[in-house]
Amino acid sequence: MSSPAPHPRYAVRIPADVDREDTVLAQLTARQLLLLSVTGVVLYGLWTVSHPFVPAAVFLVVALPVAGATAVLALGHRDGLSLDRLCLAAMRQRTTPRHQIAAPEGIHPPPTWLARYATTPDGRKPTDSAAVPLQLPARDVTDTGVIDLGPDGLAVIGVCGTVNFALRTATEQESLVGVFGRYLHSLTAPVQILVRAERLDLNAQIAELYECAPALPHPALEAAAREHADYLVALADRVDLLRRQVLLVLREPLLSHSSNPAEGDGAGPRTLTGFARRRHSRQPSASAATRRAAEARLTRRLTEAVELLGPIGITVTPLDAGEATAVLSAACNPDGLLRPSSEIAGADEVITATTGPYEDHEGREPP
Q: Running DSSP on this structure, what letter comes out for residue 152?
């Protein structure tokens, strides 16, 4: 009796940096060639102009550091980014105002009497650094959970479940990969799969265990519940508990499809045409009908994700306005003392009391 032949396994090499730019000449990208060629032309022009009265040794003392710095910036990489991009990002960060306030209604200057007596923690007078409004990509979250990204379009967020891939058989693994591959092939617009870690708060579970333990039918069960609650308390005190959250972010650009056929076909726009499209898409001129159409496309794409990923056990749950706002707040401030939640009122919401203005907490009116 012969054993069944093992199921064939297929290995496909996937590059780690899928966003790596294409090389044009001598394993150099167009950006690298542009930096090196412009620097070379400038140095050659300076040498042509200055060589009648500047010795070659003096020119080399100045030109070699410039050429070396340009080569390092063009060819160097760190964390998947070229050094020239990192330098530009550092310059933008340096020139960006340090005081940014989330004040959509506008920033008003402090009162004169307060500014006169204000001091820093070390006792010095504060510098005159004007605060600016905090500019975030997300402009607003609608009641249906659609995030308005301004000129970048609209987006929706869905929470995805997970499946254990290692415990599946070879046939089941190929089935999972096939279903996920079909979903990837069905994509026609930007999608982001985000795996984020957030702090795990066990206070609610611990309080529930202590509260429900006396109601258990047997003293042994009550002791076990209290012991488990004590274990959770000790665990939360010893280690920093984290949990994983998988988010599926679907984005729909506004004005991404041009009605002019001369701008190119679906096979890919030309360089100048694509640049013109990007500039045009940055203009906040989307009408209400365009936004409704984009919201309809997002809803359809989210429904397709639910239907395609559901058969393999991955549940996609769309987030409403409160849950989407909580996710964005947690991403902006992951170490906050108060965990963002959909039950927390927004900054522009009116908070009303559960009792009347003339009633106490027991519902009795004063005498």
A: G
Per-residue pLDDT at 54: 87
Domain limits for position 303: 140-200+241-260+267-332
Confidence of residue 266 (pLDDT cuts 50, 70, 90): very low
- Say yes or no: 87 and 174 in one domain: no
Domain presence at residue 359: no
Cα dihedral: 319, 325, 327, 328 (round 10) = 130
Query: What is the rounded CA–CA span in Å between residue 72 and residue 61?
Result: 17
The residues pairing with 132 across neighbouring beta strands, listed in sequence order, are 100
Please state the rounded mean pLDDT for residues 104-108. Answer: 72
| Highest averaged pLDDT of the listed ranges 123-137, 268-282, 300-314, 338-352 | 300-314
Q: Is residue 53 part of a domain?
A: yes
Which pLDDT belongs to residue 342?
A: 61
364: which 2 tokens?
Answer: 């009795």
Do 271 and 190 share a structural domain? Answer: yes
Q: How many residues does the chain have?
A: 367
Averaged over 207-229, what is the pLDDT? 92
Residues 190 and 250 reside in one and the same domain: yes
Rounded mean pLDDT, 127-139: 74
What are the tokens at 107?
């920033």
Q: Within 10 A of 160 (CB to CB), how many other CB atoms are there? A: 19
| Residue 121 CB partners (closer than 8 Å, separation 6+) | none
* Residue 64: φ, ψ to 5°: -65, -45
| 34 and 147 inside one domain | no
